Structures are given as structure tokens and as C-alpha cells.
């Protein structure tokens, strides 16, 4: 967020000068205009903002080169070496993505929604970072993403009264030569009316789909009662199947449904914190397709190139590739920067699955 440039830039410079902040703000605004039209750059920008510039995320990175160029356009003396500017680049990516999600700069609604949901996917289950300025950045980005998604979701589901005024104004042509203009006006009026009716119908169907799924309590993937499935498998199916039934962007209440359903009818011992390594033991080949993207798809490519954004999606692909026979833990930790031994409540793991699946849907959708 441009309004927080001073606070957020402190991860790179504890006491930045007014001149530095002015130049960084201008550079970040330029960066926003450059990434706003490219979903791939938006995804990379979120990942760098959350996880920083290191290893695979820094070498030969188009976004890093673009960020440095935007900064140097306003401060030519800014160093180009990542060993000197990594934190400054991370700060600028965070400021830019914060501006995309919740700032005053005009960006397409799909871009704003994509940035917000990728932020939720990248931060939902991660433990808090220790560095206080970075922790404040991530907390603010996550809250801003939640608020932005809720506003967009409410707007998409707003039920306006279906007006017949435009249809009532349609009058038959008085002369044969007026037929073309009459037909064009009539078609537009009917198209607008049908589109409004379809939007309301979609919202109604979403409510019915989710409520009947919750009421039934069965996984569509396996046909089993969720409460009788192994906990890890139930988490995977619950998060993914609800994410597939909601309109995007989703209402925040849907996330709460995911968290409640996965722990319903579970023993108290099953509701306590669980390590990812333990849950993955029940991610059998029969349940992985509920969540893992098919080969050759855009969201599969995204998960493969951005494991820090979609850690559990990356893991599902890795398990399918290896047949779950090869130790995945070291590679997972290295690529996602999330420990394979990380523990969280089953509800939190299910929410992570949910956010990743929703993010993938929005990423591949031409319209949101």
C-alpha cells in the first residue's frame, strides 16, 4: 500500500529518509501499473512479498528485474545486486501488492481479486514470522485481502430487483425501415434482463449446492461420510469440494463452513493440532484427484512454478508423480518454506486446501 510505504520499507531500512520514501513510492506505483495486466507477475509479486527474494525466487526473475528497473527509474544509484537490495525489492513488492489489493490505484477487479486470494493461499496456514516489520506487513496484507474479497463477494451476490422498465419501453416499429434499430434495442433489453436473472440464479444455486453438500456430509470424491474418513483424506476432500461449489470470489462465511464441517463428529483428539506429515499419510491415490490439478493445465503450471503460493497443491502433484514412495519432506520444506512438520488444527489445514483451490479457479478463469 502506498500509504504504508514508510512503515513497510523499514524491513530494508530502519529509518528511511523522506527522499527515499518519496522515490520508493513513485517506483512502487510504476510497478503496480506494470504487474496489473499480467496474472503471472501478480502471482510472483505475492510470493516475493510474503517469502522474500532468495534462491529460485531471485535468480533470473522477470519480476525482480522489473522491480529494480522501476526503482532505478526514480533513483539511478539504487544497487542492482540482489545481495544488496533483496529486502528493498521485497518491501516494494509488498507495497505494490498491497496497493493492488486495497489501495486507491485503479486496477481491474479480477486482478484485485486474484492478488487477494493468492495472498490468503500464501499466508493462511503459515506460522507467524519473527521479524516484527515483516510480520506487520503480512498481517496487514492478509487482513486487507480478507476485506477485499468480502466486498467483492457481496457485490457479486447482491440481488437487485429485476426491473421490467426497459422491457416495457420496447415499442414495435412504426415503419419497416425502423426494424433494425427496434431489434437492436429489444435484444439489448432482453440480454440485460437475462444476465441479471442469471446472476441471481447463480447465487441461489450456490446456496443450495453448499447447504445440501453440508447436510449430506458425504465426500463426492469417495462417497464416504466425511466423519468416517481418515482425517487427512477428509481435510483434503472437504476443502476442495466446498471450494468447487462456491461462486468466486467466495464469501468469508464459506471458509467458516469448511472449518466447522471438517471437525464435526470428530473425537477431541482428532481436533487438536496435527503435523502435515501425519495427515499426508492418508492422501491416497483415490483422494488426490479431488484436489490435484490435471497435468498440462494453467493451475498445475502455477503450482509447479510457485510452490510457496500453493504449497499443498505442489505437494499433491509431487505425491502423484512419485507414487508417494519417495521421501517428499526435504524438498517440500526447501521449495515452499513451510516445514513438513508444521502443526495446525485440522480446520486450519482444510482452510488452506480451500484457499488454494479457490485461488487456482480464479487464476484460470478469464472472468471473475
Explain what the structure shows.
This protein has helices at residues 5-9, 18-35, 39-51, 62-72, 82-102, 109-123, 132-157, 165-168, 179-216, 231-245, 252-263, 276-280, 298-305, 311-322, 329-336, 346-364, and strands at residues 274-275, 343-344. It is mostly helical and 368 residues long. The protein folds into 3 domains: 2-157, no CATH class; 159-200, no CATH class; 217-364, no CATH class. The chain has a two-stranded antiparallel sheet. The radius of gyration is 23 Å and the shape is flat. The two termini are 23 Å apart.
Q: Summed up, what is this model?
A:
Helix content is 62%, strand content 1%.
Tally of discrete structural domains: 3
What is the 3D shape?
Answer: flat
Structural class: mainly alpha
Largest sheet: 2 strands, antiparallel
CA radius of gyration:
23 Å
Mean pLDDT: 89
Spatially, the strands of the biggest sheet line up as 1-2
In helices, the fraction of residues equals 55-70%
* E-strand count: 2
SSE pattern, N- to C-terminal: HHHHHHHHHHHEHHHHEH
Subunit arrangement of the protein:
single chain
Could you give the distance between the termini?
A: 23 Å
Which band does the percent of strand residues land in? under 5%
The helix tally amounts to 16
Which regions contain 5 or more consecutive residues with pLDDT less than 50? Answer: none
